[in-house]
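Changelog note: in this version the structure field was regenerated for every chain. One regenerated record is shown below for reference.
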Amino acid sequence: MNSPHKIYLQPTPVRIWHWLNAFGIITLTATGAQIRFPEYLSLFGSYKSAILLHNTAGLVVAASFSLWFFYYGLVARNIRKIYVPTKEDLQVGLLRQAKFYFLTYFLGWANPHHAKPDDKFNPMQKSAYLAIMFVLMPLVALTGILLTNVSPLREFVILVGGLKLLASAHYLLACCLIAFLFTHVYLATLGKTAMAYIKPMWTGWEEEEPGEHPQHPA
């Protein structure tokens, strides 16, 4: 039996960012639920404590986002190659990957995308992460900043529709982010084993088993 070939897929800064972001978003979700529904939840003691922890977690996520952007944009300089879908991704890759997730994975076929350090994400992942990292995350952060600084930013809050509209937008954007989180965790289990795509976020290395699951014809 051939020994698995390992690829160094996730550098240390990326792994640090990923787990800071994950724990931060989980904390934001739990504290946000208590802030939104204080009559039903009391996970963190007082309402004031939940707000303080929520704001702190927001700062952690903002810091991890800055680390992500600094690494991919200024150190690795491959943010566009990794996160922006190509013409082929949009024309062919999206449908091929969707077919795998919804059908051929359950038939035992191989994943049509094979991750490499400069091509980590399949077309569906690229499209999702592009929307998450460049649209959803900045909007959640912006609405959160405005909600925590209503007095000094009062004129801008009024300009964007007032406090009620701002709070509703922040809540709906957060719900979208949470929905993505559940999808992300599920798709991360669709490797050769349930932990195959999760382990590299701890170790940096992903294993490949050459020829173990031959690709079926499309």
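Spot check on this record: The domain at 5-208 is CATH 1.20.950.20 (Fumarate Reductase Cytochrome B subunit). The beta strands are 5-8, 205-208.
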